[in-house]
Design a protein that fits this description.
Layout: H1 2-25, H2 32-36, H3 38-53, E1 56-60, E2 63-67, H4 70-81, H5 83-100, H6 105-129, H7 146-172, H8 176-196, H9 198-207, H10 216-237, H11 247-260, E3 265-273, H12 275-282, H13 284-301, E4 307-312, E5 315-321, H14 325-338, E6 343-345, E7 348-350, E8 353-361, H15 368-385, E9 389-391, H16 401-415, E10 419-428, E11 436-445, E12 449-451, H17 457-461, H18 466-486, E13 492-497, H19 499-502, H20 507-518, E14 525-530, H21 531-536, H22 538-551, E15 554-560, H23 567-571, E16 577-580, H24 582-585, H25 592-607, E17 611-614, H26 620-629, E18 633-634, H27 645-653
Parallel strand pairs: 8-9, 11-13, 13-14, 14-15, 15-16, 16-17, 17-18
Antiparallel strand pairs: 1-2, 3-5, 3-8, 4-5, 6-7, 10-11, 10-18, 11-12
């Protein structure tokens, strides 16, 4: 609303300035040219009116903008007939066109004022360097006066474009300098070239009025060339499907805004959740239609001074200035909320949701590349947390300089001997024996000491390192298992497998090769997979699990109860056991609802002929309750903390002794 009020005040000021100019020119009012050469005046005036009534529509900034070719003829009228024929004709044509187009009165007045000021500025230049126009002369322009005429045309063009550019910039709420700078190519191609045509119009009119219609051909050619150039520029900087600015245009606009104005700002990056499902189910035609509808809705939600763009695929971005962290978060939530309402795609109704990541200028970055990168980190954090909207937090950034350095060190650690495996015993509540241990990775960092999985596992998960890391843990665990077998210890070892590893077509072959190299039978290896990993790619995950089952490897579902899988899907998998997540087990003695979940999971597992393992058992009371519920296996600090290979060997040799070991990471 403030932008609209400002631009209306500006328009009023321009109109008032135009009225002052008309008052100053009133003493020299004359229409001698009209009386002396009415036919030539009629041709030129008709050119002004027709060109004003038939503007050229050129797609720019997501809409069709209009330019008029009338300036060539109105400037020609100024050269041959003086200011008043040009002023009256241009004002008349402008008012008629604006009224027919239904423009508000403040815009009608503004257009009259800006044309008046442009013609007056050109007249001042002409009179400053020459006595043109020569109204009574058969040769209005001499060869020596041509440079002055071109300078006058340039001033006409600059004043006209500047006044209009300031109005548009005020209306959009963007810095005037930035708007004019981004618009300069468009202005020069259209207005400048057409004004330079005015001397040709004058020469043609003086030589023979009958030749004036022939000017239509070069004007049409100029119009088509300008339109084509503008369309080419538009296509290079806009998305063909939605008409929104593309990645290059977004980078340019944000970079210019940051350079012009250092106010706090934010970059929103969003992509659609489950957009692939729309393409796969309904086809790409409806996917494209959905993207168009989303672009339309976003256009209606963001303000004119915001920069909205489609970066590619189902990814959109918004840049907004003067946004505090709290305001940015509210703005992001509003953007996400506006997309929650269903979209009608012909005969289908589709629901769409977006995950939105927000980075702040200058806190998170001072250039567009950094801001987009950090907004991308926040967006994926929002997606993983099912939060909808998330502000950038360096703790979630696996690509920060410190974490990038740690990534390089981790790569070397995997290839060297810094990766170690510790083992947490699993207790059988029926036999009070330890039939299995879970392999837990550690990093013996040369400077930072022994690092737990939380310090580096997410880095590996978000890079290509998770596969070689898993392979390294598997090889170490199988070698330890082989050593135990040589001294008569017959236990199984469980190794955790992530999503990216499970859906690897080569994983089964790698496991088989590792078992063969270690000389360990497949039934002594247990692979633990989470429900999330199983749901990432159901078809491929099921296929890989079946291959592993055929090898004789046991499959355990880790963190059971925290995922989104269906029981019917789980029942169809070759699974041997489920592990109840410690978030339920640790609270079961204090929270009746968690106790119900644990009891129900145990009953469910037994009905599906599965062993049930309870994780996170830290108190004797919890252990006693699980025993009473008929749980098969337990693991946690109440049994033993994770142990090094050497300490685990001591425990297995004397399993009933189970000494209290010091707290170890």
């Amino acid at each position: 609303m403030n932008h609209r009020l400002t631009v209306r005040r500006y328009a009023t000021a321009v109109f008032a300035a135009g009225c002052v100019v008309l008052a100053a020119l009133a003493p020299e009012f004359n229409l001698d040219y009209v009386e002396r050469d009415p036919v030539a005046f009629a041709f030129l005036a008709s050119g002004v009116v027709l060109c004003e009534l038939l503007p050229v529509k050129i797609p720019r900034r997501g809409n069709d903008e209009e330019i008029t070719l009338s300036t060539s003829f109105s400037f020609a009228l100024l050269l041959v007939g003086g200011p008043w024929p040009a002023l009256i004709t241009q004002a008349f044509a402008s008012v008629i066109q604006d009224l027919l187009a239904g423009k508000p009165w403040w815009r009608v007045r503004f257009n009259v004022g800006q044309y008046t000021l442009s013609i007056a500025a050109a007249l001042i230049v002409l009179r400053a360097f020459t006595d043109a126009p020569h109204i009574a002369s058969p040769h209005p322009i001499s060869t020596g006066e041509l440079p002055v005429v071109l300078l006058s045309a340039a001033v006409f063009f600059a004043v006209n474009a500047g006044l209009v550019g300031v109005a548009i910039a005020l209306h959009q709420g963007v810095p005037v300098r930035r708007y004019l700078r981004s618009d300069v190519v468009f202005i020069v191609i259209t207005g400048g070239v057409l004004l330079c045509l005015a001397p040709v119009v004058v020469a043609t009119t003086v030589y023979s009025v009958a030749l004036v219609p022939l000017l239509g051909a070069p004007i049409v050619a100029i119009y088509r060339a300008g339109r084509q150039a503008s369309r080419s520029e538009h296509a290079a900087r806009h998305d063909a499907l939605t008409g929104l600015p593309n990645r290059a245009a977004f980078h340019h606009a944000v970079r210019s805004a940051i350079e012009d104005d250092c106010r706090p700002s934010c970059v929103l990056l969003m992509d659609l959740n489950r957009f692939k499902d729309v393409n796969d189910t309904l086809g790409h035609r409806y996917g494209d239609l959905l993207l168009k509808r989303i672009a339309e809705r976003l256009r209606g939600h963001v303000r004119d001074d915001h920069v909205l763009a489609r970066l590619g695929g189902d990814e959109f971005a918004v840049f907004a200035q003067s946004q505090s962290p709290q305001a940015s978060l509210r703005f992001g939530r509003g953007v996400a909320e506006c997309l929650r309402t269903s979209f009608e795609l012909e005969q289908f109704v589709v629901d769409a949701e977006a995950s939105v990541g927000i980075s702040l200028f200058p806190e998170d970055g001072t250039d567009i590349e950094t801001l987009l990168q950090k907004a991308d980190v926040a967006m994926y954090q929002a997606k993983e947390a099912h939060a909808g909207v998330s502000l950038y937090d360096e703790r979630d950034d696996h690509h920060s300089p410190a974490k990038l350095a740690l990534t390089a060190e981790l790569r070397n650690a995997i290839q060297g001997d810094e990766i170690v495996v510790w083992y947490q015993p699993v207790l059988d509540l029926c036999t009070d024996q330890i039939p299995a241990l879970e392999a837990l990775v550690r990093w013996q960092h040369p400077e930072l000491g022994l690092l737990p999985p939380a310090a580096f596992l997410q880095i590996a998960e978000h890079t290509s390192l998770i596969k070689p890391l898993t392979q390294r843990v598997l090889d170490i665990a199988l070698r330890q298992l082989a050593q135990w077998r040589t001294i008569g210890i017959d236990v199984a070892v469980a190794v955790n497998v992530s999503t990216r590893v499970l859906v690897d077509h080569e994983f089964t072959g790698q496991v088989r090769a590792s078992l063969d190299n270690a000389g360990v039978p497949p039934d002594r290896l247990k692979l633990e997979v989470t429900e999330t990993a199983l749901m990432a790619d159901r078809v491929l995950a099921r296929s890989v699990l079946q291959e592993l089952d055929q090898l004789g490897i046991e499959i355990s579902i880790d963190d059971f109860g925290t995922g989104y899988s269906s029981l019917a899907y789980l029942a169809a998998l070759p699974v041997s056991e489920v592990k109840i997540d410690q978030s339920f087990v640790s609270r079961m003695t204090a929270d009746a609802r968690d106790a119900v979940i644990v009891r129900s999971t145990i009953d469910l597992g037994h009905h599906l002929s599965l062993r049930v393992v309870a994780e996170g058992v830290e108190e004797q009371a919890t252990l006693n309750q699980l025993r009473a519920l008929g749980c098969d296996l337990v693991q946690g600090y109440a049994i033993s903390r994770p142990l090094s290979g050497e300490n685990a060997t001591r425990l297995l040799v004397q399993p009933r002794r189970r000494p209290a070991l010091p707290a170890i990471v």
